[in-house]
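Figure-free illustration: sequence to structure, shown twice.
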Amino acid sequence: MKISEINLQETPDAVRLSAKLDDFELWYKLPAGWPASARGDAFLPPALVVSMVRDKPPEITSDAPISPQLRLGCEQIQHVLHGWDPSFRYATIQTGEKLSEPGHPGVASFFSGGLDSSYTFLRHAEEITHLILVRGSDISLADDRVFTAAVRHGEKVARAFGKTLVVAETNSLELGVRRGVRRWTYFGATLAGVALALGFRKVYVAGGQNYGSLWAAGSHLLLDRHWSTETTTFIHDGVEARRSDKLRAIAGSRVLLDGLRVCLRRGNYNCGRCEKCLRTMIPIRLLGCSSPTLPLLASAAPLRAIRLRDDAEFSYCRENYELALDVGDAEIAGALLSLMRGYIVRKTVLDFDKFFCGGRLARAYRILRGRDPAGHEPNRQLGGSRRPAQPRPGRNP
């Protein structure tokens, strides 16, 4: 993959940093007057992950200089990704090097309005000066309604704590879609690219895992810090706390709870029905909290409509199960135990089929049902999907 035609364009409304990655134009839209630099750093994280998954051979060249520290960090990132999934091939990076230049002196934290980012912000609120809300990561470029609501909540939190909200946009995820790379694999590189384009002195990335349950993911304790340059330091934060601990920490902040946003379903601030919403609604009920953006979980009935898909969701379910036992909620504990048992049975059957039957049972199931079996993806299998997906239309600023 070649990084070329890097362009920095300033208008009265925004600063647009763009480059060609082969035939794809990757862009970052930053606030008007932002002190951005026309370097290759912001384009290397997306290029690296996509190249490792899809390019044969995986090679990266850049017309613009790259930070020496970032280039060394990419070597470590490749070791981690390849160690998790050998289908990630090592990429060669051929480009000139130049020390990164000081950018914005502030300390920022990515802020989606979710439980993880709210906890990280509150934990480091004295140090953090800016909150970064990204459109084109968990919020689609085409989803105006959710984006507007997320900005409104971010501005409210920023005002309450005396911080500044920075709204950035990118089409980085579209590159992954076009090349058939899973979002779960790619979203950490998207955030890294945005942060490097903004150039803050330090950037906190809220983690969704804890020391007791770590699995492979695109944003991870072992990955995020290696995106650092000489002038921008990445900190992966929050691994010391479980979701229930994070909820307890922010329970005293009404402004954070009032706009809590956890859903990834397009068009929904929170749908209140998906596994991601329910995994947050459960501890809200168990800890006696409330959020106007999520419905009250009055009974365990909604839990019967979901099915755990992978080890990550199983881990979150187990955390909530242990919390339900601690507070004595037998109804929720029983429903979660049933979900975990079902997942273990499906995983055991699929593993047996894989190692003893060569996958013939799964193929027979697909033929009979006309669809893929609802199985598991151990550690979400970081590699790309079988074929590139057709891109959905997005906005080009």
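We now fold a second protein in the same way, so the two outputs can be compared directly.
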Amino acid sequence: MPNANFADVNGQHLFYSVHGAGKPLVLLHGGINPDSFGSNLAELAKGRQVIAVHLQAHGRTPDTDRPLRSETMGDDVAALIRHLRLGKADVMGYSLGGGVALQTAIRHPDVVDRLVLVSAAMRQDGFYPEGVAAFKQLEANAAAYGPGVKASPLGQAYPDVDWTNLFSKVGDLTKRPFDLSADVAKLQARTLLVFADADAIRPEHMVEFWKALGGGHRDAGVDGSLRPANRFAIVPNSTHYTLAVDPMLPKIVERFLASES
């Protein structure tokens, strides 16, 4: 890949690729699949410089003996932004990458300008109960899932990934309860929440997340002057598993990133 790069930060050999030109947008994929955004990566890069990161143990970023944690991967993203001397960058993450993006903004507000969270929760119970139950079983089922992915086109694209290990480490991460509501209420970055209308996240939690960001408390007024600074979107006819590649997503994101403060 001509735009392939590595940065050595926090003991990680972090892979990233650069696409397009303009204000930087750091793009963080979902769990397991580093190509979660599909052709939407190119769409997002039409108006800005997209820096697509492979998180620890995913894709071309090798694993280390460090466990997968949203906090430490958020530290990696912040270190990469500083390594590239981007100043404040926009950061966008989907699913697992959304949790990492959120931790980047919480722990390193000095490097995040605008924040886009796609199908992410601020508490573990934001997911439906069956999803939480699946998270708790993922580590135990890693040996069953790994070989199937290794034999798939995704596995062939990334032959160096230890897929059983990756499922195990993602399972160890996702089974752990978390509650970031207090941190969300103090976020400094202007934030866009994007969900699917048939998401893995409960609609009640979507609204709770939005309210924690200052939205949904009152009418914006006839002239819109009382509208909150943050934004909230639900994409119709989509699910948690299709949202990242939905053609509506780049349009929603660009509208938010291009809007005035």
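Summary for the second example: Residues 4-124+179-258 form a domain with the Rossmann fold fold (CATH 3.40.50.1820).
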